[in-house]
């Protein structure tokens, strides 16, 4: 009987195990193999050249600018996303007339794919078909090159991402807010705490798990940014908006060097693992 249960459990787990093996473990091993090899895209594996691919990362003229831009973009997006999503969650937390409508409205951009949203905003920013420049001209203002300068391209992309994901993170924080017992606020009120004191000393500490999840998701997603910059800016102007993932794409499919691209991928993966471990430990320690 016990043997049959073990067999049944193994059969239930087998599809998931096969999926993980085929789509996660095998590609990861292949990337590791590529990173240690001279592997042109069109010529195939030419043999081990370790550590040439890794030594070449620091010599890549776009690597450090891409790292710096990715970190700058991540910092801006994470701060704005957490702040706005928390504000939206606080606005729609109370059950009153119209709350359901606003919850749905704030969440609606999340249902749109990132590539589709990027194309939508590309149209908005376009001087040929977009509505923004005609609106500025109607107000007597000069048209803006929304994607034509490094600063404008960065902030135009930030606006897209905040619009796209603020509603999703709002839902996560809203669930966290609704899990806080009302008795805690009542006790704080009886102790003389005002709204701001209750927010900082009751809401924020009890919301820490939800805030931690939002932090991890937003940091990881921002560090791996690709679609929005590939569609909106193509890394321009003058390579000023090239992210680390875009650099990997360029190495693989424009310079046709899969070995160098795989080496950068391994470095990025290692950095993300370390960062996530640090975040998880910090959250566990605070809890």
Automatic annotation (TrEMBL):
<keyword id="KW-1133">Transmembrane helix</keyword>
<keyword id="KW-0472">Membrane</keyword>
<keyword id="KW-0812">Transmembrane</keyword>
<keyword id="KW-1003">Cell membrane</keyword>
<feature type="domain" description="ABC transmembrane type-1">
    <location>
        <begin position="67"/>
        <end position="279"/>
    </location>
</feature>
<dbReference type="InterPro" id="IPR051393">
    <property type="entry name" value="ABC_transporter_permease"/>
</dbReference>
<dbReference type="InterPro" id="IPR000515">
    <property type="entry name" value="MetI-like"/>
</dbReference>
<feature type="transmembrane region" description="Helical">
    <location>
        <begin position="73"/>
        <end position="93"/>
    </location>
</feature>
<feature type="transmembrane region" description="Helical">
    <location>
        <begin position="198"/>
        <end position="226"/>
    </location>
</feature>
<keyword id="KW-0813">Transport</keyword>
<protein>
    <submittedName>
        <fullName>ABC transporter permease subunit</fullName>
    </submittedName>
</protein>
<dbReference type="GO" id="GO:0005886">
    <property type="term" value="C:plasma membrane"/>
</dbReference>
<feature type="transmembrane region" description="Helical">
    <location>
        <begin position="258"/>
        <end position="278"/>
    </location>
</feature>
<dbReference type="InterPro" id="IPR035906">
    <property type="entry name" value="MetI-like_sf"/>
</dbReference>
<comment type="similarity">
    <text>Belongs to the binding-protein-dependent transport system permease family.</text>
</comment>
<dbReference type="GO" id="GO:0055085">
    <property type="term" value="P:transmembrane transport"/>
</dbReference>
<dbReference type="Pfam" id="PF00528">
    <property type="entry name" value="BPD_transp_1"/>
</dbReference>
<feature type="transmembrane region" description="Helical">
    <location>
        <begin position="105"/>
        <end position="125"/>
    </location>
</feature>
<feature type="transmembrane region" description="Helical">
    <location>
        <begin position="152"/>
        <end position="177"/>
    </location>
</feature>
<feature type="transmembrane region" description="Helical">
    <location>
        <begin position="7"/>
        <end position="30"/>
    </location>
</feature>
């Amino acid at each position: 009987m016990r043997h049959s249960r073990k067999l049944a459990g193994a059969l239930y787990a087998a599809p998931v195990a096969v999926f993980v093996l085929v789509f996660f473990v095998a590609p990861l091993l292949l990337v590791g193999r590529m990173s240690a090899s001279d592997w042109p895209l069109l010529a195939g594996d030419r043999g081990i050249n370790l550590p040439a691919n890794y030594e070449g990362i620091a010599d890549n003229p776009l690597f450090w600018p891409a790292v710096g831009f990715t970190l700058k973009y991540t910092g801006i997006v994470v701060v704005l996303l957490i702040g706005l999503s928390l504000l939206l969650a606080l606005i729609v937390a109370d059950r009153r007339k119209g709350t359901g409508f606003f919850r749905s409205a704030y969440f609606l951009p999340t249902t749109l794919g990132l590539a589709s949203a990027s194309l939508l905003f590309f149209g908005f920013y376009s001087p040929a078909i977009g509505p923004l420049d005609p609106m500025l001209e109607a107000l007597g203002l000069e048209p803006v090159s929304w994607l034509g300068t490094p600063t404008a391209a960065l902030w135009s992309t930030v606006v897209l991402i905040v619009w796209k994901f603020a509603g999703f993170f709002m839902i996560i924080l809203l669930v966290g807010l609704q899990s806080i017992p009302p008795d805690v606020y009542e006790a704080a009120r009886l102790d003389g705490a005002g709204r701001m004191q209750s927010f900082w000393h009751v809401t924020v500490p009890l919301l820490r798990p939800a805030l931690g999840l939002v932090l991890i998701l937003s940091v990881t997603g921002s560090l791996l940014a690709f679609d929005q910059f590939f569609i909106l800016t193509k890394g321009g102007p003058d390579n000023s908006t090239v992210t680390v993932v875009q650099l990997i794409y360029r190495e693989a499919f424009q310079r046709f060097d899969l070995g160098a691209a795989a080496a950068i991928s391994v470095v990025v993966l290692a950095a993300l693992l370390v960062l996530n471990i640090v975040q998880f430990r910090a959250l566990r320690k605070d809890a």
